[in-house]
Amino acid sequence: MPIAPVQLQEQSITPSRPSTGARLSCQRETTRHKCSNPDCLKKALSRGRCFEHGGGVQCANPECNKRAQRKGLCRGHGGFKR
Protein backbone atom coordinates (compact mmCIF):
# COMPACT_ATOMS: atom_id res chain seq x y z
CA MET A 1 0.00 0.00 0.00
CA PRO A 2 1.60 3.35 -1.05
CA ILE A 3 2.00 6.16 1.49
CA ALA A 4 0.34 9.44 0.55
CA PRO A 5 2.76 12.39 0.44
CA VAL A 6 2.26 14.93 3.21
CA GLN A 7 2.45 18.60 2.30
CA LEU A 8 4.45 20.64 4.80
CA GLN A 9 3.50 24.18 5.66
CA GLU A 10 6.14 26.87 5.34
CA GLN A 11 7.21 28.42 8.60
CA SER A 12 8.74 31.82 9.02
CA ILE A 13 12.28 31.74 10.34
CA THR A 14 12.14 35.32 11.60
CA PRO A 15 11.62 35.61 15.38
CA SER A 16 8.37 37.05 16.67
CA ARG A 17 10.25 39.31 19.11
CA PRO A 18 13.35 41.38 18.47
CA SER A 19 16.49 39.74 19.77
CA THR A 20 18.16 41.18 22.83
CA GLY A 21 21.84 41.88 22.92
CA ALA A 22 24.36 44.29 21.48
CA ARG A 23 22.09 45.33 18.66
CA LEU A 24 19.37 46.52 21.03
CA SER A 25 21.81 48.55 23.12
CA CYS A 26 23.13 50.26 19.98
CA GLN A 27 19.60 51.20 18.96
CA ARG A 28 18.86 52.54 22.42
CA GLU A 29 22.00 54.68 22.36
CA THR A 30 21.15 56.30 19.04
CA THR A 31 17.61 57.20 20.10
CA ARG A 32 18.60 59.31 23.12
CA HIS A 33 16.97 62.72 23.02
CA LYS A 34 18.88 65.95 22.95
CA CYS A 35 18.51 68.68 25.57
CA SER A 36 15.35 70.77 25.09
CA ASN A 37 17.37 74.01 25.23
CA PRO A 38 17.64 75.12 21.57
CA ASP A 39 21.31 76.16 21.84
CA CYS A 40 22.46 72.95 23.59
CA LEU A 41 23.69 69.84 21.75
CA LYS A 42 24.11 67.57 24.80
CA LYS A 43 22.01 64.48 25.56
CA ALA A 44 19.05 64.79 27.93
CA LEU A 45 19.34 63.08 31.32
CA SER A 46 15.82 63.63 32.65
CA ARG A 47 12.91 66.03 32.12
CA GLY A 48 14.21 66.52 28.57
CA ARG A 49 17.25 68.49 29.73
CA CYS A 50 20.98 67.99 30.15
CA PHE A 51 22.54 68.49 33.60
CA GLU A 52 23.49 72.11 32.93
CA HIS A 53 19.88 73.01 32.07
CA GLY A 54 18.19 71.24 35.01
CA GLY A 55 18.21 67.54 34.13
CA GLY A 56 19.52 64.75 36.33
CA VAL A 57 19.89 64.74 40.11
CA GLN A 58 21.95 67.37 41.89
CA CYS A 59 23.83 66.92 45.15
CA ALA A 60 21.60 67.30 48.23
CA ASN A 61 24.04 69.79 49.78
CA PRO A 62 22.45 73.24 49.15
CA GLU A 63 25.84 74.90 48.50
CA CYS A 64 26.88 72.32 45.88
CA ASN A 65 25.92 72.29 42.20
CA LYS A 66 27.56 68.97 41.23
CA ARG A 67 25.78 65.85 40.00
CA ALA A 68 24.72 63.31 42.64
CA GLN A 69 26.60 60.00 42.42
CA ARG A 70 25.06 57.92 45.21
CA LYS A 71 22.53 58.47 48.02
CA GLY A 72 21.72 61.92 46.62
CA LEU A 73 25.24 63.23 47.23
CA CYS A 74 28.17 64.09 44.98
CA ARG A 75 31.56 62.45 45.40
CA GLY A 76 32.88 65.32 47.53
CA HIS A 77 30.03 65.05 50.06
CA GLY A 78 30.15 61.29 50.61
CA GLY A 79 28.17 59.94 47.68
CA PHE A 80 30.72 57.25 46.77
CA LYS A 81 31.83 53.88 48.08
CA ARG A 82 35.44 53.37 49.22
TrEMBL record:
Record-linked InterPro entries: Znf_WRKY19
Pfam families assigned to the protein according to its UniProt record, in alphabetical order: Zf_WRKY19
Species whose genome carries this gene: Phytophthora megakarya
UniProt domain WRKY19-like zinc finger: residue ranges: 57-79
Name of the protein in its database record: WRKY19-like zinc finger domain-containing protein
PANTHER family the UniProt entry points to: EMB|CAB89363.1 (PTHR31827:SF1)
Composition bias type Polar residues, residue spans: 8-19
Region: Disordered, residue numbers: 1-25
Regions crossing the membrane: none
